[in-house]
Amino acid sequence: MKLSKKHNGAELTIFSEMSALAQKNNAVNLSQGFPDYEIDEKLKKLLARATNQNHNQYAPLSGNPLLIENLITFNKNRKKSLAFSKEEITVIPGATYGIYAALTTILEPGDEVIVFEPCYDSYVPSIEMNGGIPIFVQLDENFELNWDEFENAISEKTRAVIVNSPHNPTGKIWTEENIEKFYSYIKDTEIIVISDEVYDQLVYDNYEFYSMFHHPELKKRCFSIFSFGKMFHITGWKIGYIVADEKLMKAFRSVHQYMMFCVNSPAQFALAKYLEIFDVEENRKIMQNRRDLFMDLMKETPFEFTDLANGSYFQVANFKNINDKMTDKEFAVWLTENYKVATIPISAFYHNQKNTGNIRFCFAKKEETIIKAVENLRQLN
Amino acid sequence: MNFKKFHSKNEVNIFTEIGKLASEFNAVNLSQGSPDYDLGDEMKKFLMEGIHTDLTQYCATSILPDLEKNLLNFIARRPIPIHVSNKEIAVSIGATYSLYVSLATFLEAGDEVIVLEPCYETYEPAIGIRNAIPVYVPMDENFEPNWQKIKDSITEKTAAIIINSPHNPSGKLWEEKDWNQLWEIIKDTKIIVISDEVYQVITYDGKPHYSAFHHPEIKERCFCIYSFEKIFHISGWKASYIIANEKFVKCFNNIHQYLSFTINVYAQFALAKGLGIFDIEKNIQFFERKRDLFCDLMKDSPFQISEKTQGGYFQTVDFSEFSKGISDKDFSISLIKNYKIASIPYSAFYHNHKNAGKLRFCFAKKDETLLLAAENLQELLKKAPLS
Fold first, then answer.
1. Do B60 and A37 touch (CB under 8 A)?
2. Which residues of B touch A16 (CB under 8 A)?
C-alpha cells in the first residue's frame, strides 16, 4: 500500500510555514494574505441573523438564490458592467477550490496548462492532481508577460492557461489591451482560460479591473473566479463564486455537485444581504490608504521598490541593498528571526524556487500593525 | 470544445430533482437528509459568540486549537472509544469532499474501487473523477454484505473498497464480526478501506457503532469519514472530519491544503463549543424517538417496514405489495404529485437504477412534518393502488 505523491507542491505551504515562524518569533506577520483587522460589524450581525432565521441546512447546488440574484445585480452595476445569467454562476467554497474544480472539469491526463510565474502556489498542485502538466512561462524583470515566450509555450496539447489579475504577488493588473492581445494568441485554438480574479475589488489609483469575462470572445471559454474572502476581508469564511458561460458551467456543476455539493448556508445568506449595502468605493479607498501608508513609511527603510502595487493585498520589495548574498527564502527567515517581520519570499511563487532578491509584504493589516512592522524594519538602517 | 463525462450520473442529481418537484407540488419533503427543525439555541449562541470573537488570526490555520482539543475528547468518549492523536485527524468542508480527497490521495488512473450497492450517490462520480473504475457488488436482500461476492470482485487492480455504516439508505450497521470478515478478505492485499461513517454515533436500540478504526489492523489502512452536520443537524454548514493513521492524514492534508486550505472559522468555533457539551446519548434518544414515531405512523399506511432502521436519518419502506408493476421512481413521483409526500426511490442508489420496490424516507424532521406526511398517506389508502 503506497500513497503516491500527487503533486510537486511543498508538504507545508510557504504561507503556513512563514506564519508558524512568525508566531514562534513573535514577529509582526505581513506574510499570509489575511487581514488582522476585524470585519464589518454589520456583516457579523447578518451572519448571526442568518443562523437565527434557520439558514442552516443545505443550500442549493448553485448557491443561495438571493445571493445569486444579488451577485448578478452587483456585477451588472460594476463601473465596467459584467453581465451574466443565473446559469452562468456558482457559489464555491473558496477560490482555491474553484480553480481546482475548474481544472478537474476540463483536464484529461497529459493535457498541458500554461502558468505564468511567479504565481500563487496552489495552481501547480491543482494541475498535477488533475493529471495535467504545468508549462511555465516566466514573467520578465518587471513582471510583464513576454508574448513570444507565451506563443512558444502553446502546443497542441495545451488545454488551458491560468491568468491572474490583479496579480498575486506583484499587484499587476491586466488592461483591456492586454486581454485583447492575449486573445489574439489563442483565438485559433480551443484553449480554456482559468482566470483568478480574487482581487477584483482592490484596484488602486487610476486602474480599472477587467475580467476575462468582459471580453466578448474569451467569455465563451473562460472560468472567472472571485472571492468574498478578499472582497469583504473574511478569508476565514472560505467562500467565493465562479462565472463561466452556460456550457462550461454545466460541466463544472456536474463535477462540483459530487465533489462538494454546496457551500456553508448561513454565510451565503449573510453575504447576500451584505452585498446590498456594500460600498465598493469606500472599501477600495480604505485598502489604497493602507498601501499608501505602508509605502510612505517604507521610504525610511533600505528596501527598494520597482513598482507600486496597482491592486491586491501585496507589495513586492527588493532587498539587494540590505543583503545580496542571501537567497530570498534565507532573507525572509532571517528577517523574521532578527527583525521580527514575517514576509513571503518571491521564490515561493516559482516551481524551481528560483532566487529573486524580492519578498512580498501584505499590507491588508491594521494601521498599528503596519506601523509596528516598519518600525522594526527601520532597525535595518 | 468537449468535456469528458466523468461519471454516469445524471446532470441533476436525484436529490435536487426530487427536491424541486417537492417544492413545485408543495409536498411534505421527507426526501433529502436535511432537518427542517431549528438547530437549537445552543449552537446558534455558539456561532454568534464566534462571530463576536476576534478569530482573524485563526483564518490562516487549518484547525482551531479548541476544536482540535474537543474533537479528540469527543472521539475518546464515543460509546466505544477511539483514542487518536492530533496527527490522526483532519477537519474539512463536508463528507462528500472528504471522500473525494481521501480517494485522491492514492487512486491512480485505471484502479478499481469496490462499491457495495445500494450506496450513496457521490461514490461513483468521486471515483470517476479520479479516472478510476467503480466495481459494484450487490448486498444481500437484507443489506448484509455478501462476502463471497466481495471476494470474487477483487482483482490485482483493486485499490480500495468503500464501506458505509450506518448505511445510507438502509440504516444497516456493521458489527465487529463484519469488520473481522472484511479483514480476512483484504489482509493479503493492499486494499485501502474508505469508511463512510457520517451518521457515526446515531445508532439505535442499544447497538453501538463499530468504526473501521476500531479494527486493530484495518485502522492502519483506512480513511474514516465523519460529519458534524449529521450530529448537530446543520447540513448547510459543510463541516466534517476524518480519522486515519498519521501517514494517511498527512497525505490528506497535503491535497486538502491546495484544494481548499481551511474551513469556515466561525463554524469551527461553534463546533468546538458544541462538542464540549454534546451529549451522545441524548442525541440518540432524540432521533430514536423520531424513528419510532415515523414507524408507528407507517403502521396505518400502505407500506411495509421489514426492519426498523439501525442508525442514521432514514427509514426504508417497501411498497411492492401495495402497488405492483410500477417502478420506485415513478411511484415516488406519483406520491409527490398526487399525495404530496416526497421520498427518494431506492433505484437512485443503484448504478443501473434497478427497481427495488422501496422508498427511503428521512425522519429527521419536525414531529408535525411527520404527522402531516402520515395524514397525506392516509389518502393513498383510500384510493386504488397507484399504477
1. no
2. 60-62, 257
- Peptide bond before A118: cis, by omega within 30 degrees of 0? yes
CA B232 to chain centre: 14
CA distance A314 to A169: 6
pLDDT tens digits for range B61-74: 678 999 999 999 99
Contact status, residue B268 vs residue B64, Cβ threshold 8 Å = yes
Residue pair B31/B344 in contact (Cβ under 8 Å)? The answer is yes
The residue behind cell 514576509 is A343
pTM, rounded to two decimals: 0.88
Q: Which residue type, as a one-letter code, is found at position A151?
A: E
Q: What is the pLDDT of residues B115-129, one digit of tens each?
A: 999 999 889 999 999
How far does B371 lie from chain A, in Å, by closest CA?
21
Integer Cα distance of A268 and B106 in angstroms: 33
A375 has a pLDDT exceeding 70: yes
Nearest by CB: B126 against A247, A254, A258: A258
pLDDT band at A14 (very low <50, low <70, confident <90, very high): confident
| CA separation for the pair B268, B276 (Å, rounded) | 12
Q: Confirm or reject contact between B112 and chain A (CB < 8 A).
A: no
- Cα(A136)–Cα(A139) distance, integer angstroms: 10
Contact B254 A9 (CB under 8 A): yes
- Select from B275, B230, B218, B239 the least CA-distant residue to B67: B275
Q: Where are the beta strands (DSSP E) in chain B?
A: 28-29, 89-92, 112-117, 133-138, 158-164, 192-196, 222-227, 240-244, 314-318, 341-342, 344-345, 358-362
- Out of B128-132, B160-164, B299-303, least confident range: B299-303
